[in-house]
Amino acid sequence: xxxxxxxxxxxxxxxxxxxxxxxxxxxxxxxxxxxxxxxxxxxxxxxxxxxxxxxxxxxxxxxxxxxxxxxxxxxxxxxxxxxxxxxxxxxxxxxxxxxxxxxxxxxxxxxxxxxxxxxxxxxxxxxxxxxxxxxxxxxxxxxxxxxxxxxxxxxxxxxxxxxxxxxxxxxxxxxxxxxxxxxxxxxxxxxxxxxxxxxxxxxxxxxxxxxxxxxxxxxxxxxxxxxxxxxxxxxxxxxxxxxxxxxxxxxxxxxxxxxxxxxxxxxxxxxxxxxxxxxxxxxxxxxxxxxxxxxxxxxxxxxxxxxxx
Length: 309
Prior knowledge:
- The longest helix has 8 residues, at 75-82.
- The chain has helices spanning 24-27, 68-73, 75-82, and strands at 6-8, 11-15, 34-41, 46-51, 87-88, 90-96, 101-106, 138-143, 157-165, 191-196, 202-206, 217-221, 232-236, 242-248, 254-260, 295-300.
- The model has no long low-confidence stretch (mean pLDDT 94).
- It is mainly β.
- Strand 10 (191-196) and strand 11 (202-206) form a beta hairpin.
- The chain has one domain (6-236).
- The chain has a 7-stranded antiparallel β-sheet, with no helix packed on it. Strands 10-11-12-13 form a 4-stranded antiparallel β-sheet, with no helix packed on it. Strands 14-15-16 form a 3-stranded antiparallel β-sheet, with no helix packed on it.
């Protein structure tokens, strides 16, 4: 789970009881019992899950954690106390069942500071959030022990690496890190929602505000092989909107996308629209008097070919 704000954290909840696909009643209280943990990234390429349990370590009654309810209600404070790694707006989080790896999107953090002596440790760059500021965001790749055959997502530690540093590869100041063959239409900023399609490719939707002249869009790329981290532009969202939550048919021939808040921005200056009249679009109806409306769209390939290929 990602807490999508500057300097917040990545969490995990492991249930006490296993999910039973044959007993719905047994699954109804799975979230009532288990262990909430927060991520700490180390410079040796490991990421540790630190349990957030009232009464253990610094989460004492004197610190305000008299019960587990206090941990749930003040989770950010608990994560601060155990020394978790503050992140750059973590949001999208997806497991790649073909490789056993996890991908996490850091949307952005323009308030990240360089590392300086005597500075606020939480706000300075760290190994997993290496840029200051970070207006473009990045993607992390986490590898659970057990490999693709039997990944152990409940393990105490994972391996981790930076998968992509977003930004314009043509601008050295962006410090972008994509596949060398990434085109001028393929790079992106502000990664948000993630998905893995039936073919095993990673899909990324963005949530700006993006650089001038670029709108929020949907990208697709391989995570392994020669096309690893080589994004390709798939879909451009309507003006002022973001495309969210890609979901696929089992054969991969169609993708469903949620289109949020179309027309939110004005065309003239890319600022927030204040009325229907100055909204950037009246999508999807394009009729006088009809406002722009959030919608669910489905995109399919002709002859049922695989989308994004």
